[in-house]
Design goal:
single chain, alpha+beta, 5-stranded antiparallel β-sheet, 3-stranded antiparallel β-sheet
């Protein structure tokens, strides 16, 4: 039996999720890219059993109060899954979650919420990044839960599904 690929996502609170979903929907329409749920990936593309992931996520969520982080800036890259994103500093709360759930990748951790996937013409992307940076830079995003999601680089975006989630402790 083939194991499913999962990712661990830090998910924004309902208010911030709605704001990001609206923004991402507009960008998706503007650039003809696939829609997806807003999230900050803590661990990607793992074949660990779901039960093991559920235990790890429950422990990390129980140890972490909900928190807000300001968007440092909006950036872009040539990478498909990081074409256009809101970047965050590696705060103590983000570092603690990464350390708890994916310690092997802590050194390379670049916390971000992707806003658009896929290739975009450079001039159009630069303009959209500037517009979005003016809107988001410095704005705090509140994170309040961790999701276990059937997702990965080899899983079609339309098939991504939240399988389980755990709420962070009340702040």
């Amino acid at each position: 039996m083939t194991r499913r690929i999962h990712s661990l996502w830090l998910m924004p609170s309902p208010v911030d999720e709605a704001m990001l979903t609206d923004l991402m929907g507009a960008l998706s329409e503007r650039f003809g890219s696939p829609p997806f749920a807003p999230h900050l990936t803590l661990k990607g593309d793992t074949q660990m059993p779901l039960a093991t992931l559920e235990q790890a996520v429950a422990a990390a969520a129980a140890a972490t109060p909900a928190f807000a982080e300001p968007v440092a800036r909006v950036e872009g890259s040539e990478a498909f899954f990081r074409s256009f994103y809101a970047r965050f500093a590696v705060s103590p709360a983000l570092a603690a979650l990464k350390r708890a759930l994916d310690p092997a990748e802590l050194d390379g951790f670049m916390p971000h919420v992707s806003l658009l996937y896929g290739p975009v013409a450079p001039d159009a992307k630069a303009a959209a990044i500037a517009e979005t940076d003016a809107r988001l830079a410095g704005r705090s995003i509140r994170f309040d839960r961790i999701g276990i999601v059937t997702s990965g680089q080899d899983v079609p975006i339309a098939d991504w599904r939240v399988m389980a989630q755990a709420s962070l402790r009340p702040a």
